[in-house]
Amino acid sequence: MTDEINPKREFVSTVYIVKDGKVLMTFNKNINKFIPLGGHIEENELPCDSVIREAKEESGLNIELVDLGELKEKNLPQNLDIQLDVIKPDHHHINLSYIGKIIDGEMLDKSDEDTELKWFSPEEIINSEDIFENTKEKALKAIKSMESEELNLSEYQKLAKITAKKFETPEKEILTWGLGITGEAGDIAGCIKKTYAHDNDQRQGIRENIGDMLWYAAMICNFFGWDLQEILNENIEKLKKRYPDGMFTIEHAKRKGERIDWNEK
Predict the structure, then answer these.
(1) What is the architecture, at CATH level 2, of domain 153-257?
(2) pLDDT tens across 211-260, in order?
(3) How far, in Å, CA of 232 to CA of 236, rounded?
(4) Residues 122, 155: Cα–Cα separation, whole Å
(5) For the chain, does the N or the C end have fewer beta carbons within 10 angstroms?
(6) Which of these CATH numbers, 1.10.3720.10, 3.40.640.10, 3.40.50.2300, 3.90.79.10, describes 8-147?
C-alpha cells in the first residue's frame, strides 16, 4: 500500500509586466525556463504587495498592478489567474498571477539572482521552447488585456478638461489655448534646433512638448465641443482623397487650387 503524500503548499505571487506590447520575464535556472517575475508571499504580506516588492527586487522597476475585476465593492486588485504549481510531489506552490505596468525605475541588466531578464513579443512567446505552455497563454492574455488599457482620445480629452484652469470669459479661455499651442510648437522647434544645430540633445524635450501641444489641441476641441477622434478621422479621409495612390507625390501635394487658406477667408 502506497503512503499518501501530504505536500507542503506555499503561496507565491507572480506578475506579467507589459510594456509596448511585450512581456518581461526572467530565466529560472532550476527549471531552465523563462517565467514571470515574482516569489513567495511573506508572513502577513498581501499577494499584491508581495509581487510589487518582488518585481522591484528582481528587475529594479517600480510597477502598479492592473485591476481586472469589474466588481465595484472591492479592496484588493483582482488578479489574472490562480493555479497550483507542482514543484515536486511533496512541494506545491499556490500561484496568484497579476498583470503589471511600469511606473518608473531603471531596469537591471540581470535579475537579483544573476539571471537573464528579457522582453518577449507575442511572436517570440509563441515560438519559444523556453516558456511553459500555460505561461505562454497567460503572457499573451496579459498583452491582450493591456491593449484595452491604452488611453483613448475621448478619455484623454476628459482628463485634459479636468486639469485645465477655469476662466472668467470664453474669450480668455480660447485665447489661452490658441496661444498655448503655438508656444508649445515654438518649444518643439527650439528643441529641434538645439539638438541638430548645436549638438545639444533635446529629444526628450521634443517628446514632452509634443504631449503639451496635444493637451492644448484637446482643450481647443473641448472648447468647441468637438471630438478629437472625429477630427483625426476627417484628416485621414482628407489625406486619402489628396493622395489616392496612398503615397506622397509633388503633383498631388500642389492640390491645384483645392487648398483653402483659412487666414484669407
Answers:
(1) Orthogonal Bundle (1.10)
(2) 999 999 999 999 999 999 899 889 988 888 888 877 777 776 666 556 66
(3) 6
(4) 27
(5) N
(6) 3.90.79.10
Beta strand 8-19 pairing with 91-105: parallel
* Nearest C-alpha neighbor of 148 from the set 105, 99, 221: 99
Nearest to 145 by CA among 72, 70, 203: 70
Q: Which three cell numbers stand for residue 176?
A: 489661452
In whole angstroms, what is the distance from residue 11 CA to residue 40 CA?
A: 6
Strand 37-40 to 22-28 pairing: unpaired
Q: Which three-class secondary structure string do you get for the chain?
A: CCCCCCCEEEEEEEEEEEECCEEEEEEECCCCEEECEEEECCCCCCHHHHHHHHHHHHHCEEEEECCCCCCCCCCCCCCCEEEEEEEECCEEEEEEEEEEEEEEECCCCECCCCCEEEEECHHHHHHCCCCCHHHHHHHHHHHHHHHCCCCCHHHHHHHHHHCCCCCCCHHHHHHHHHHHHHHHHHHHHHHHHHHHHCCCCCHHHHHHHHHHHHHHHHHHHHHHCCCHHHHHHHHHHHHHHHCCCCCCCHHHHHHHHCCCCCCCC
Does the predicted TM-score (pTM) go above 0.70? no
- Bridge partners of 24? 17, 119
